[in-house]
Amino acid sequence: MPTNFGQLVMGPPGCGKSTYCKEMAEFLRNLGRNVVLVNIDPANDVLIYEASVDVSNLVTVEDVMNHKQLGPNGGLIYSIEYLEENFVWFHEQLSKFKGSYFIFDCPGQIELYTHHQSMKKIVEKLQYSGFKLCAVYLVDSHYCSEPGKFISALLMTLSAMLHMEMPHINVLSKVDMMAEFADKLPFSLDYYTEVMDLNYMLECLQDDKFTKKYKKLNSSIVELLDGYSLVSFLPLNIKDKRHLLQVKNSFDKANGYIYNAGERSDVQALLACAVGSQTESERIGIDRDLYTSTMEE
Ligand SMILES: Nc1nc2c(ncn2[C@@H]2O[C@H](COP(=O)(O)OP(=O)(O)O)[C@@H](O)[C@H]2O)c(=O)[nH]1
Ligand SMILES: [Mg+2]
User: Which Pfam family, any one, appears in the UniProt record (predicted)?
Assistant: First the structure.
């Protein structure tokens, strides 16, 4: 029986999930992969790609809001709970595309990834029925513009990693926009992607006008993040093919696609992908020049 590989694209609203799904699907299709796009964001009323499976055929937030007298957030949570209850429908839809590579465009309500149970249960059911999945968690690079925002993004990302309990890669999206707020960035791009020594960030937090009154809390949060030492990001400008390739290599390792699917038959390419044998400048140096030149002036 063919294995179904795939990824769930998660992250807060507006971080670029749907755009990523569309562009990554195209990128992978150009490499010869048979990609199926699945929309599981019931709030996605206008789709920018053609979805082979669309949760709106089962439930829409608008209907839920009208029938259950809920607001947009409650409506979305209810819709995902409804999808979980109707997993048989969902599985039947996906079964039509056996052996494909699945990209799931997920909703932007982060409580679904940090503490609510339905997304986790949907993932468990998919894994139980043979899907090999990983999470691609997008965070808008605008979060780097203030120390408090960056720390909250790290906490949110860490919570999602711990809660979802699945192979996980994190992506800092829209890095092409970083030059616009370069004057606000005390550190270079690799500091944010590698999440280097957070004591430097702590110093910024202790001086920042919004966070300086919470000195003990700031220290505890930084200590917690340092203790887990799990969060790092890959940079992504959606128009940059080198970034798409880096992200692809990373998610293919995360869910084991490179070891099973036989797409990259060339042994050297396989090894390079498997052991991550890239030089530092290949991985991030070009980006530093492109996106942070104004920061270093
Ligand atoms: N500059 C820039 N804009 C992006 C990038 N990725 C997405 N966007 C824009 O961000 C906005 C929100 O993207 P969308 O995919 O709808 O986000 P979602 O709510 O997470 O699905 C759209 O206007 C996209 O064109 C990127 O890499 N660079
Ligand atoms: Mg979207």
Answer: ATP_bind_1
Q: In this structure, which residue's CA is closest to atom 2 in ligand 1?
A: 174
Q: Could you tell me which of 34, 33, 44 has the C-alpha nearest to residue 9?
A: 44
Taking CA atoms only, the protein residue closest to ligand 1 atom 3 is 174
Residues 40 and 162 in one domain: yes
Same domain, 107 and 78: yes
Q: Which domain holds residue 218?
A: 201-229
d(CA 238, CA 127): 28
Q: Which stretches of the chain are DSSP H helices? A: 17-30, 61-68, 72-85, 87-95, 111-114, 118-128, 147-164, 189-194, 198-207, 215-228, 241-254, 257-260, 267-275, 280, 286-296
The amino acid sitting at 171 is V
Helix, strand, or coil here: 137? strand
| pLDDT tens string 241-275 | 999 999 999 999 999 998 875 665 555 455 555 54
Nearest ligand (C-alpha, residue 179): 1
